[in-house]
């Protein structure tokens, strides 16, 4: 299970003493505990300037999480743990990626799916199963992988269409 609470929990007063202050377009100025920064071993497709991110909960009761770039204040993705929407979704991750992310033998791979949420019609929300983000929360390392487009949909609907 993804340790979202460990990477995205609210900071208490003692943590803010060492926090980095980061300006974002979506959340304004935020305090970021350096111990919660996730480093991508390679950038997300189309965003070469963004390597450092944090996970920020959408709300306490929401399964959605923001993957906020610390390198580009305008860049944030809504993500969801893959296990929450599809328990059968277990794509193979290459041994090279597992090595780059410093996974220990047998350590469970944590997958985040990037969501697309139409502004005027959130019921048509989709998840990108083709390009999940693999997260090693204990090492705070991540990478986006690209899977077989014949097997995985980049725009998988989350809700049945009526």
Core attributes:
162 residues; mainly beta; BH3618-like; 7-stranded mixed β-barrel; two-stranded antiparallel sheet; 3 helices; 11 strands; 30% strand
Describe this entry's structure for a reader:
The chain is mainly beta. It has one domain: BH3618-like (Roll), CATH 2.30.290.10. The chain is 9% helix and 30% strand. It has three helices and eleven strands; from the N terminus they run ααββββββαβββββ. It has helices at residues 4-8, 13-16, 95-100, and strands spanning 20-24, 28-32, 38-40, 52-57, 65-69, 76-81, 110-116, 126-127, 133-136, 141-144, 156-157. It has a seven-stranded mixed barrel with strand order 3-4-5-6-7-9-10. The protein has a two-stranded antiparallel ribbon with strand order 1-2. Mean pLDDT is 88; it is low at 1-14.
Query: H/E order of the elements?
Result: HHEEEEEEHEEEEE
What is the percentage of strand-forming residues?
25-35%
Average of the residue pLDDT scores? 88
Sequence stretches where pLDDT stays below 50 over 5 or more residues: 1-14
CATH topology: BH3618-like
Helix content: under 10%
Strand order within the widest beta sheet: 3-4-5-6-7-9-10
CATH superfamily: BH3618-like
The major β-sheet equals: 7 strands, mixed, barrel
CATH architect. name? Roll
Q: Number of folding domains?
A: 1
Shape: globular
Count the DSSP helices: 3
Structure classification: mainly beta
CATH class: Mainly Beta
**Alpha-carbon distance between the two ends:** 32 Å
Q: What does this entry show, briefly?
A:
With 162 residues, the protein is mainly beta.
